[in-house]
Structure formats: C-alpha cells, structure tokens
Amino acid sequence: MKFTTTRYGMIAMLAFVLVACDQSQSQSQSQSDEGVLMPPPLVSTMSLTPESLTVRDTLPGRVSPVRSAEIRAQVGGIVQKKLFEQGSEVNAGQPLYQINPEPFLAEVDTAAAGLNRAEVVLAHAQAQMLRVSSLLKSHSISRQVYDDEVFKRDQALAEVAQARAMLERRKLDLKFATVEAPISGRIDQTLVSEGSLVSSTDSSPMARIQQINQVYLDLRRPASSLESLQKALTTQHSENGLPVSVLRSNGEPYGITGRVLFSGISVDSGTGDVLLRVLVDNQNQLLLPGMFVQARVDRSYYDNALMLPQQAIVHFEGKSQVWVIDANRQAHLVPVELGELVDRHYRLKAGLTAGQKVVVEGMDRLNDGMDVRVQEWQSNKSVSGVDY
Asked: How confident is residue 31, by pLDDT bands cut at 50, 70 and 90?
C-alpha cells in the first residue's frame, strides 16, 4: 500500500512539470505573436565604378626561326675541311666546307681546251667563207658549195657557244666545291666530318643555319575569339601590330615583346583553333627554335568598363541576374548581360549603370523588395562598418 502511494506521488510531480513547460512555451509563442521583429538581413555591397580594362589572353606557343637554311652539297666529292666553329654566328657567303677541288679544276681545264678547239674551227670556217664569197660573185663555184660553207661556219659558231657554256658550268662546279652559307645566322652542329663523301642527292644536310635575332611565335587560339582579335588589329594598333608579351613557363616575363603579324585562314578541325603568328625581336637570343613559351595577347580594351565579382552573379534558367540595393535600402533582382571574365570579375555589357550598389555577399537570404542592412564589401575580407 505504501508503494502504491509513492507511485501516485511521482506521477503527480511529472504531470506538474509538463504543465509548467507547456505554459512557458505558450508564453514565448504569445510574445513572438505580439510583434517581436527580427532585424533585416545584412548584405555586403559594392558600388559600380568605371575603370579602364585590357582583356588579355595567355596562350601557349612554339618558337621558330625567321629564316632557316639547310647546308647541302651542290657537287659530289670528299670533304677536306670544315671552316666554321659549331654554334657560332656566320655571315651569308662565308665558306663553311671545302670539298676536294682537284677533279673540278681538271674539268675546268678540259672545258677550256674544248673552247679553244671550237674557236680554232670557227676561225677556219670564217676564213673559208670569205674565200667562197668572192668565188661565188665571179661564178667560179656553185651555190651549193657556198651554202655548205655557210652551214659549217654556223655550226662552228654553235660549238663555240656550247664550249663556252660548258666552261662556265665547270667553273661553277669548282666554285660549289667551296660550300658557302646561304644566309646569316647561327650555325648548328656539323653533320659531316672531314673525309666524308657528299653529293647533291644526300637525304640529310651537312649542317643547318637559323636566323634567330628575330623569331616567330606560333600561337593557337579558339576560332570563336577571332572577331575581337581582328577588331583589335584594325582599330587599336594598326601600324605597329598588336603587342604581345612573351612569358616563361612559370608566368614570369622575358622582358621582350612582339607584334601580331596575322591570323591563320583555316581552322583546325580537331581542336577548333587557328594559328596566330607573332614576330618577336630576339637580340639577346633568349628564345631558341623549338622552345615552348607563353604569350600574353591584348584582345580588347575598354575605357569605362563596369566590373563585377564573379560571386555576385546569380544564374537561373540560363540567365544572369544580380541583386541591386536601391536608395531605400531595398533589394531588387535585376537581369544583366555579361562580357569577358577577367581575374574572376565579369565585365558588364548591359543591365546596370555606374554608381549602383550591387550585393556581393549575403544574397541567399534576400527576397525582392526586402529591406536590408548594408555594409561595404571588401575583397580582402577586412572589417568594415555596417550601414544601418
């Protein structure tokens, strides 16, 4: 019986506690219903200010020489001497190799002897013509004899011309026995040595010369950006070409610049890119043929661009919108048209004007027409005062 009384007492105490909690919740709910309002949401904003903007593309490129020549033998023979230092600068016309000239000297002498013989035959034919001409006038010989002598003279003239041409050809072969540099530039390593047999039909060259005081950069860029590039070429730097900065693989500049010469006329079907050729002054020869570098190309320029951080853009159903705060500190969602993305900032093409306040942070709690508290947005996350 005593146990039953204690049990009933515990149940009564529990019921009392539950009733007290329910009353407390009812009082809190009634206080909230009586009009205790939450403060407006706090947002970070920035004012749109016009600024100059240069849109640049950083593209990979490969270096190629302005001029390149393969050194090849024009006559066959044994290489006697190498007349240059490998890796040095050579001038156009400078001797590079000496092929054994003795066979060509002998051929020159033979051709000269042939020319002398042809000239002797010609002199005899011309003297004979003088004699038969006088005999023909006195009707001492027939016309046929005279015509035969004319034929012999003309044939002798042709043989002299042929022998003279042969002599010039042999002299030319003798000259080709000294292999000369066709262009000025830096010569690479020699691919033949003294004692090698070379000929004009060899598949590989004797050496290569590349002119690298100026070099080409062959860049690849999407064909979709050609319109803005062509506009820049025709309007901004029409005389000196569009400037290009050359960068190292780590992004640091070389300190040398170039200019765009032209863009390709065909699109790569595999990548959708076009060729962009850039001429670069390379007086210090920092750029070598075959190197892969980066180039920064100015694509377009704007005097009064309105820039907006990428995080301020609200994308919905394929449209771009931003939250704007009016003079009454109320939020409104406004559609905008975006331009280029530069350093995580969009250029605004349409939809907003300079001086408007745009929400950068805190837009996830906003509804159209809602009152807000405003603070200035700081990109470096520094503490700023709140505008109530």
From this structure: very low
